[in-house]
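Quick one:
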Amino acid sequence: MSTKLRILIALIASILSPLLWNWDGAGANAQITDNFSDDNFTSSPVWAGNDTDFIVNTSKQLQLNSSGTCTSYLRTSNPQPLSDCEWNFWIRLNFSPSSSNDARVYLVSNQADLSASLNGYYLQFGETLANDQVELFRQSGTSSASVCRGTTIIANAFSIRVKVTRDNTGLWKLFIDPTGGTNYMQEANGTDNTYTSTFCFGVLCKYTSSNATNFFFDDFYIYAPPDIIPASLDSVKVISQNKIDAYFSENLSAVSSQTIANYSVNKGIAFATAAKQDTINPKLVHLTFGTAFTSGQYYTLTVTGVQDLAGNNTVNATNIFLYFSPQANDIQINEIMADLSPVPNNLPAHEYIELHNRTNFPATLKGWTLSDASATVAIPDIIVQPDSFYVLTSTAGSSAFSGIQVAGISSFPSFNDLGDDLVLKDASGKIISIAFYRPDWYNDPLKENGGWALEQRDPNSPCGGKTNWRAAADNSGGTPGRKNSVYGSVPDIIPPTVSHATIISTNSIHLFFDEYMDSATLISLSSYSVDNGMGNPIAANPVEPDYTSVTLTLSSPIPAGTIYTISVSAVKDCAGNAIALENTVQFAVPEPVSANDIVINEIIFDPKEFGVEWVEIYNRSNKIIDLKEVFICSPDNSGNLTGINQIAPNGYLLLPQHYIVLSTDADAIKAQYNAINSNGFIDMNSIPSLNNDSGHVMLINFSQAVIDHLDYHSEWHLPLLNNTKGISLERVNYENATQDENNWHSASESAGGATPAYQNSQYTTGESGTEITISPEVFSPDNDGYNDVLSISYTFDTPGMVGNVQIYDSRGRLEKTLVHNELLATSGTFFWDGITDEKLKIRIGIYIIYFEAFDAKGNVKKYKKTCVAGGKF
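Output:
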């Protein structure tokens, strides 16, 4: 047979195979016999395949009748379940079998083309060894595994009769009569239940040209008990909100399995709207329904009228299934091992994340993905049981964990030690959980250096960010697969606020919040109102994955030269807290930044313990400036710019006369200083390292033109201070030169050592005025709510004054030391409640306030003021 003809026959077989699979075999026989006494193999039964390579010879035997070196097969349809089956036949090979000349008799095959990849069982006649024996194999695709092996030697030409049985437990037995008669002797047995049904039976001959006519077969007999048991509904698998797969115990009739009236689901879902039998697996039916399932509901699928290939009707078969579609934070990223240097105390040295199913339903993660900032990987088809944990790690790491649920992922992401953006998505691409961790999430400066897992504290506050995460407290370094060691209640009761807005096109703005938001509440147009006649936006699109912002499309272009205020109401954070009333932020069309529009205004280069370095900048111009155009860096001693970092890659509008603090951890600054302007901070991934003795800080634009430049020195601090750790250097005046040493001074102690994001404590315009004022002149410290406290206010023209405030009675006796050697701001106020140093209430009468101020140069100012302490008679 020519090669082209063989290819054509194989192609036709591959086209007909699916059709034969779906053959409605209601009249299928449970018995096949063929001794070829009718002189053909084209009827009763029909054999097909490479039929031009076979003949029925004059001895009424099936004989290979080919030429050349090739492989040929014939098969006959035999669709039936495997239960108490028997096969027997006669075979003769007129040569010594080898790996080039052998035969296979396929007892079971799920494919019509026996030379192709298939699933089934076959008997092998011939091999490379000298002691050839008959052997039963299971074939899976193109791989084979032995089930059992006989003892009769067939290394030379042979003529034998073979019988094989299989019972309903999957026990196979091999019988052989080496004389070719029917005096069978059992030679082997083995158990294999991998495949439980068959489509066809056949023979496959592999030969060289010298043996192209030396294969003979006869007396085929196949028996299976009649099928009188209808197909059972074995299981149901949920595919989507309106699709399920129904799995049956045996092959189904094509017509009945695709009749939609045969399938119904309770609770108002009703009959299927589509039923499609699988083209590969005839036991499987894909069902579609017109009504969506409700997440968290159990349903019952009822099947009536579906027939197997023997025509047996399935009546009222039922199977209960659960539809559960996890929503945001139902499955949470609950623990992260990101830094393995040093190696954890008693955990495998592999990065991992832990997932927690916090619901009452099992969750199937087929088709889900895990992403970090640089890669996305598919999660294996795993099921996370209710209120349980599942660890995801690398393929190598999966074998290192024991006693827990763990899945290995090829190309598992390598997490960034300095922070990463982890996102968990379901099969539809919906965001289920995020964790944008940073080093400060450890809340432990020692543990953030590595070797400890990050653990979520309260699964009921998944949007808490760093406040809801801590370094593991367990001595092993983490708790993968079990309850977190830092577990506790961390309720989020703080409402969200609007932090800032940027302009992203001629008629759209990007609005930012200070925490994760409920995306469903961000889409309401009535929640946003812009003044100056703009009104409500015409579109609102929450920005994933963390939903800390929303893009708003306005009804008309935004004109330049006007500052707008947008008011936000009704939106909620992830925890359900509604935004406070009158939450507003301003925006305007930005202008290009020029030199000295923005100046460096305050700097901390020697922070407190557990604090961070930071730089405050101030917009001294009348422009609205987008900090996306501004970079912070540090020139080295050769003038080369190092550590260049864009201040706000997503944009940040700095309005005129506004301050902003640049750091890597705004929360650390707010915890250590009086942060009266909580929105005046930008967290950056990195800022230039600031040396404690001296250093350089520079602001530049996109073209690296200098906006402002500071070369600071620790000697600029007030010499009278014993310790400057945690004390900032403040700019005294925005109009004076940045590099003027006299334009910088230590922040006042009365201001807490720094003034992040608001006017400097040492700021002065240089204008003179009344330096000490007392108010009221008569006060009555009787707690009646009227003039109970005395105010002592001061204003100096120059910074760096150290003050003492003492209060004497009319006889000159010291009653109260209010301030002692305190570094003062350029202006401020002290308060006295009328209580003496001995904790006694003062008497009615006249009192003298003595205010002394001096600087490091020895200049001293002394003031005496009087007041009257009144009372009721």
